[in-house]
Design a protein that fits this description.
The strands form four sheets. This protein has a seven-stranded parallel β-sheet with strand order 5-4-3-8-11-13-14, sandwiched between helices. It has helices spanning 3-10, 14-26, 49-52, 57-68, 83-92, 105-111, 136-141, 168-179, 220-231, 284-294, and strands at 31-33, 36-38, 76-79, 98-102, 117-121, 125-127, 132-134, 147-152, 156-158, 162-165, 181-187, 199-202, 209-213, 235-239. 43% of the residues are buried. It is 32% helix and 20% strand. Strand 4 (98-102), helix 6 and strand 5 form a beta-alpha-beta unit. With 295 residues, the protein is an alpha/beta fold. Helix 1 crosses helix 2, helix 4 (57-68) crosses helix 5 and helix 5 (83-92) runs parallel beside helix 6 (105-111). The longest helix has 13 residues, at 14-26. The chain starts with a helix and ends with a helix.
């Protein structure tokens, strides 16, 4: 719809409409076009960092708090780009002996002054909309890497397709990050549950764990999607769930038995512990991280 039409409908000036449209775009509620505005593009358009950083901020903080508890001293992990992973990185600064491989400038910046955390950046071409390194350089720098966990976010998550994003280059790098990890942890607030976007990054059968927030009681779509993900074996960790400040569960009223062990988990051990041995700096896998660091 054009700005002129909007001004006519709401009976105000085009100057006022233009200002209001800018504010709505910043909140991710619509997309500006030349001379007008449209509803968000869904499958085709990805919001930029300014828009994403203002969405579901409390939920992202709670998710990051819970996800940080999955990381142990001395681990080597990969962390993908995104506003939720940026929140996670801020909390990882307190984990001693940690090695973080990332393609995100925002993640690296959050850890830049952490004395006991080593940050390894991939190569690649800078994608300014989300401050991430993408392209063949980023993917090649991840070849031969092996870490305990990958922490990723995206634009949408469904039980049918898994995690997805609206940008092809970002999706390709995220797939390379997944290949480097023994376990895949997806960080997604409830607004992304049931949303599907163009490019699949992590199919559902490769997602070890989902860390999310508790959907509002009226959000049947998110609750249904959580149940479907649990039915497919994804371990669900809900931040702020009633009576469960950090455990695995699906929303009340749609409760299901917890799924069994996923890839990289040894029966009888804690599901939150890595079983790859990357905490030991003498292992060959740790050496691969050191190789990447020297590039």
């Amino acid at each position: 719809m054009s700005l002129r039409e909007l001004a006519r409908v709401v009976q105000t000036s085009e100057v006022t409409v233009r200002r209001d449209v800018r504010a709505l775009e910043a909140e991710g509620l619509l997309d500006r076009r030349h001379g007008g505005a449209v509803l968000p593009g869904g499958f085709t358009r990805e919001s930029g960092f300014p828009q994403k950083s203002h969405l579901a901020t409390a939920e992202k903080t709670a998710i990051a708090d819970l996800a940080a508890g999955l990381v142990e001293e001395g681990e080597a992990i990969v962390v993908g780009a995104g506003t939720t992973t940026q929140e996670l990185a801020r909390r990882l600064a307190r984990v001693p002996g940690l090695t973080v491989v990332t393609n995100s400038l925002l993640v690296a910046q959050a850890l830049a002054h952490a004395n006991r955390v080593e940050v390894v950046m991939t190569g690649g071409t800078l994608r300014g909309s989300n401050y991430a390194l993408v392209g063949s350089g980023a993917e090649q720098s991840l070849q031969g890497l092996r870490v305990s966990k990958a922490f990723l976010s995206g634009s949408g998550l469904t039980a049918e397709r898994g995690l997805s994003t609206s940008n092809m280059l970002s999706a390709s790098v995220d797939r390379a990050l997944v290949q480097a990890a023994a376990e895949v942890v997806v960080l997604a607030d409830h607004t992304k549950l049931g949303t599907d976007t163009m490019f699949q990054t992590v199919p559902t059968d490769l997602i070890t764990r989902l860390v999310t927030d508790e959907p509002p009681g009226h959000d049947d779509r998110a609750a249904t999607e959580l149940q479907a993900l649990a039915d497919q074996g994804v371990q669900i960790a809900v931040a702020g769930a009633t009576g469960n400040p950090g455990g695995d569960q699906v929303p009340a009223g749609r409760r299901a038995p917890l799924p069994g062990p996923r890839r990289g988990h040894v029966p009888g051990s804690s599901p939150l512990r890595s079983t790859t041995g990357l905490g030991d700096p003498t292992t060959p896998d740790r050496g691969r991280v050191a190789d990447l660091r020297r590039r």
